[in-house]
Amino acid sequence: MAMRPYLTGLSSCDHALLLNISKLGVALLETRQSSTLDEQRALFVDKLHRASFMKNSHMVDCLKLEKQFTDFYGERLLGFLFSTIEQGSVHNWLRETIKVRVGSHHPLRRVLIENFFDNCVSAAPVKLTIRSGPWLCKNPAADHFGTPTITSYTVLRHHKLGSRAGRFLCACGYEFTARLDDIDASGQPVKMRITRYGDVFSKKVRELVAKGYRHTTVAKMLSVSLPIVRRILAGFDRRRSHNGTHHLARKMRLSKVSRTPTVTKSTRKGLVDWAARDEKICEQARQAAAKIAAYEPPQRVTMAAIANLLHNRSLYVQLRDKKLPKTAAALTLLTESVESIQCRRAQWAYEHWPAEVPLAAWRLRLRARIALNKSSSAVIQFVEKLAKEGQR
């Protein structure tokens, strides 16, 4: 076969890859299949799993994928197809395409990825995967226990063991998680943990307790632990999860309330003399304002600056609740306006003006950080007055 002039320099392996890519491109044009972004994303995730490029159920080993992809095609062929990959970049075209971001992707690069996945999946060893449903219900309190009643599952987005996992929910409300890449002797997924027990299980626990069975006996009959039985009797259906922190927080709040002694606040710490505290904080605020006003170069006296020096975290809450009326009135008088701090900065800059630099109004405004379009006329006139006095 005659060699095209623009194909010189490529090996026979590269020619075979180009021929296969052209066949895939022609097949793609003939089929004209259209799919949504979710369908494309699910297709890529399935191929990434089968080609062993997933760290766990939701994370892609991008570095491994980029290296093997580049080794499979070679730098020369990728450069010829204008598809060179920037190794390690989080925004290279390979990562953007396999994650199926919103937008259009180059059809040639899509064909490159599909050809690479087809070769990787065919060369990868066959793994045990979960068979098609339905799957057995694991609820020992249900009448259909051990019968295939579960027809679907959802893939978990987080799993610490590194293997794919799914969440299986039965119609009775019983829900458990299981590994998707491992099966037991009967071909069923291996159950890991229970995430929800359901109304049927809860009703069975209450029935057994109502008949006079001890909590420990009920736990043994239903093959669960004693804390699970007590949680269900207390109204907690779901098993506490490490990802659901609100259940743990609620349990901690309840235990804290139960441990709180039954003594009133007044008997434990005594009544607060708000008048004396108001007088004390008011005096501290005056001292803090005087300290801020003495800074050089001048700094604006604000409520935030005063509160920062007082080191009183509850100051704003006490002012909001109107427990410190004298302090609130003093803070209103102590805080400094924008015009006041601008005049103070201008006066300080005038008093510390270097003798070798000619004094001018625009230089004084620049040194005092005063803008013409953001300052009042009174401040501008004050700066011009200082400049005229310095020029005499």
SSE topology:
Elements: H1 12-31, H2 37-50, H3 62-73, H4 75-80, H5 93-98, H6 107-123, E1 135-136, E2 148-150, E3 153-155, E4 165-169, E5 175-183, E6 189-196, H7 198-210, H8 215-221, H9 226-233, H10 245-259, H11 265-269, H12 274-293, H13 303-310, H14 315-320, H15 325-334, H16 338-351, H17 361-367, H18 377-391
Antiparallel strand pairs: 1-2, 3-4, 4-5, 5-6
Helix pairs in contact: 1-6, 8-9, 12-13, 12-15, 16-18
Describe the structure using short key phrases:
4 domains; four-stranded antiparallel beta sheet; 392 residues; two-stranded antiparallel sheet; 18 helices; single chain; alpha+beta
Describe this structure in words.
This protein has helices spanning about 10-30, 35-50, 60-75, 75-80, 95-100, 105-125, 200-210, 215-220, 225-235, 245-260, 265-270, 275-295, 305-310, 315-320, 325-335, 340-350, 360-365, 375-390; strands at about 135, 150, 155, 165-170, 175-185, 190-195. With about 400 residues, it is an alpha+beta fold. It folds into four domains: about 10-125, no CATH class; about 135-250, no CATH class; about 275-335; about 350-390, no CATH class. The strands form two sheets. Strands 3-4-5-6 form a four-stranded antiparallel beta sheet, with no helix packed on it. A two-stranded antiparallel ribbon has the order 1-2. The protein starts with 11 loop residues before the first helix and ends with a helix.
Total domain count: 4
| Helix percent band | 40-55%
Please state how the strands of the largest beta sheet are arranged side by side: 3-4-5-6
Number of strands: 6
Low-confidence stretches: 124-128, 240-245, 262-269
Distinct helical segment count: 18
Strand content: 5-15%
Taking the sheet with the most strands, its summary is:
4 strands, antiparallel
Order of secondary-structure elements? HHHHHHEEEEEEHHHHHHHHHHHH
Structural class: alpha+beta
Radius of gyration over all CA atoms, rounded = 37 Å
Shape: flat
Mean residue pLDDT: 78
N→C terminal distance: 97 Å
